[in-house]
């Protein structure tokens, strides 16, 4: 079977309202997919449901034709904003080592091979020199690289990145894109959510266009049609002389456009 | 010439007091690191007061006071964890409800006893010089069990304390770990009951780890320094009690507080005055 990863008729909600309805999708092994859509479209909701942070209301998520196991190392997930306590007494090395948790046995110290995976992950993200630094002493970009390194240390089949390009410095953005390139050789399936439609079209194999339901998925040229974009972005899109322009309010500001449960998704 | 150091501990009741204080110093200092890092100080204080009805009932039926305290502590810990679980009631609200309700029940029960004032004082502020051998066995066994649990669950507790979302995506049972931590906290309070009492146990849970936090940058080091501060406070408090004839529990807490203040002012890199002096 070539489809690594299938979502069948998936519905997810907060409270009594559904944030995603009847989404069906399949992603080929090792593909790199950009998930796009307006604020509140359910991009983060999709990721959170995939890692078990939100209960699934209907449908199923299958990996290799089997139901997604709860937890473990199949999926690594990096939320848009890490909700961690930055004053916690842990070093960069400690945080990246947490990525090995699922591989380790109880009460055993970090094995030599686990340690090597951690060091390689730090190296790959260009933060090997910071490994003994307390986590609270890092810049925002360095912090994001620590969490990318931790996700790498998990050695996942699927990597989910929620808005990795929002609010980071140029160096971290380039480092993240380099990392995505490097992950191709490791056949890691990557899903990222982004507001950057240019980036989605130019750097990713496939695009998924969401607005609470699946509008279109496939090659960027198939997905980014005027009809699809109008369907997804509605009033936020204008067509000028045959060219579509999406007026997308990234990340806050116009929350009245995304009422109710969708607000959590911004 | 060192007689003043050894003299107090030639007395049997002082030897028992020393053992009891060391158990409290170590167990509170280790578990207190999670109390400080997870902002559970209010919970610790509340749980301490909430064991009062257990102590009172044990007293009325003639059972061991620590056993009564343990039962009450476990019930309240599970209750708070359950009520605040799904986010229907905020955790601090749940704590406040259980804390006040259990404390009120404790006061009502104790007021039915004839020796109300004396007993309440011992429960509130401890009576380390009156510790019995049976109490040492209960405290020692419970303390050892808590330390083993902290060691066995070290990585899980670290992950869910630092990054609960990672914990959930790794499939850790975060709710069970949280309840487990509450139960360990209840156990620690029971361990401390005879030595420092319910009113001051929060200080032994919070002050040594807070002092250790100022001079360390990793959790294992923080736990180590915290234990050191806890042990020095426990022993220092006993000496003060012996030679100055003051309450041991209060003296222990004051030693810990003094260490915290010194480190807050002079800790390398982080102390308030240290930074002024270096500049």
Key terms:
heterodimer; A: 266 residues; alpha/beta; Rossmann fold; 6-stranded mixed β-sheet; 4-stranded antiparallel β-sheet; 8 helices; 29% helix; disordered C terminus; B: 279 residues; ABC transporter involved in vitamin B12 uptake, BtuC; 80% helix; 0% strand; globular
The unreliable regions of chain A are 252-266
Kindly state the mean pLDDT of chain A as a whole number?
A: 82
Strand order of the largest sheet of chain A: 6-7-8-3-9-10
CATH topological fold name of the largest domain in chain A:
Rossmann fold
Q: What's the architecture of the largest domain in chain A, going by CATH?
A: 3-Layer(aba) Sandwich
Most residues in contact: chain pair: A-B, 30 and 24 residues
Please provide a written account of the structure.
The complex is a heterodimer of chains A (266) and B (279). By secondary structure, chain A is an alpha/beta fold. Chain A folds into 2 domains: 3-74 and 156-265, Rossmann fold, CATH 3.40.50.300; 84-155, no CATH class. Chain A is built from 8 helices and 12 strands. In chain A, the strands form 3 sheets. A 6-stranded mixed beta sheet of chain A has the order 6-7-8-3-9-10, sandwiched between helices. In chain A, strands 2-1-4-5 form a 4-stranded antiparallel beta sheet, with helices on one face. A two-stranded antiparallel ribbon of chain A has the order 11-12. By secondary structure, chain B is mainly alpha-helical. Chain B has one domain: ABC transporter involved in vitamin B12 uptake, BtuC, CATH 1.10.3470. In chain B, α2 (12-37) packs antiparallel against α13 (219-244) and α12 (201-213) packs parallel to α14. The longest helix of chain B is centred in the first third of the chain and has 26 residues, at 12-37. The termini of chain B are far apart. Chains A and B meet through β6 and α2 of A and α9, α10 and α13 of B.
């Amino acid at each position: 079977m070539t489809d690594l990863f299938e979502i069948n008729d998936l519905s997810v909600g907060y409270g009594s309202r559904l944030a995603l309805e009847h989404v069906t999708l399949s992603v080929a092994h090792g593909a790199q997919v950009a998930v796009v859509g307006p604020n509140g479209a359910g991009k983060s909701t999709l990721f959170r449901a995939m890692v078990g942070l939100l209960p699934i209301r209907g449908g199923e998520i299958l990996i290799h034709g089997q139901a997604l196991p709860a937890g473990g190392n199949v999926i690594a997930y990096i939320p848009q904003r890490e909700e961690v306590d930055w004053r916690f007494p842990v070093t960069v090395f400690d945080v990246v080592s947490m990525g090995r948790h699922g591989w380790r046995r109880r009460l055993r110290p970090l094995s030599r091979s686990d340690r090597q995976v951690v060091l390689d992950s730090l190296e790959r993200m260009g933060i090997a020199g910071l490994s003994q630094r307390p986590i609270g002493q890092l810049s925002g970009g360095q912090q994001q690289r620590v969490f990318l390194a931790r996700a790498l240390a998990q050695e996942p089949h699927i990597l989910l990145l929620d808005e990795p390009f929002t609010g980071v410095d140029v160096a971290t953005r380039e480092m993240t894109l380099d990392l995505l390139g490097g992950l191709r050789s490791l056949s890691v399936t990557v899903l990222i959510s982004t507001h950057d439609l240019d980036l989605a079209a130019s750097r990713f194999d496939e695009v998924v266009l969401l607005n609470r339901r699946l509008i279109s998925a496939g090659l960027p040229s198939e997905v980014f049609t005027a009809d699809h974009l109008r369907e997804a972005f509605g009033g936020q899109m204008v067509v000028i002389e045959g060219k579509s322009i999406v007026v997308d309010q990234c990340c806050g500001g116009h929350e009245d456009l995304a009422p109710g449960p969708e607000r959590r998704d911004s | 010439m060192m007689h003043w150091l050894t003299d107090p501990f030639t007395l049997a009741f002082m030897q028992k007091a020393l053992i009891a204080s060391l158990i409290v110093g170590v167990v509170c200092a280790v578990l207190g690191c999670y109390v400080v890092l997870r902002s559970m100080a209010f919970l610790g204080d509340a749980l301490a007061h909430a064991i009062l009805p257990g102590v009172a009932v044990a007293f009325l039926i003639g059972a061991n006071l620590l056993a009564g305290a343990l039962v009450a502590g476990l019930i309240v810990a599970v209750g708070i964890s359950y009520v605040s679980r799904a986010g229907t009631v905020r955790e601090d609200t749940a704590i406040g409800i259980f804390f006040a309700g259990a404390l009120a029940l404790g006061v009502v029960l104790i007021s039915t006893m004839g020796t109300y004032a004396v007993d309440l004082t011992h429960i509130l502020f401890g009576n380390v010089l009156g510790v019995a051998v049976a109490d040492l066995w209960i405290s020692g066994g419970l303390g050892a069990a808590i330390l083993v649990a902290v060691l066995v669950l070290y990585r899980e507790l670290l992950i869910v304390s630092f990054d609960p979302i990672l914990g959930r995506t790794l499939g850790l049972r975060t709710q069970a770990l949280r309840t487990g931590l509450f139960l360990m906290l209840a156990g620690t309070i029971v361990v401390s009951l005879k030595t420092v009492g319910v009113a001051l146990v929060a200080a032994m849970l919070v002050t040594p780890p807070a002092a250790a936090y100022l001079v360390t940058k990793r959790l294992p080091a923080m736990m180590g320094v915290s234990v050191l501060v806890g042990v020095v406070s426990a022993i220092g408090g006993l000496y003060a009690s012996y030679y100055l004839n003051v309450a041991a529990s209060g003296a222990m807490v004051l030693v810990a507080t003094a260490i915290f203040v010194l480190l807050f002012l002079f800790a390398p890199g982080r102390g308030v005055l240290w930074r002024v002096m270096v500049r």
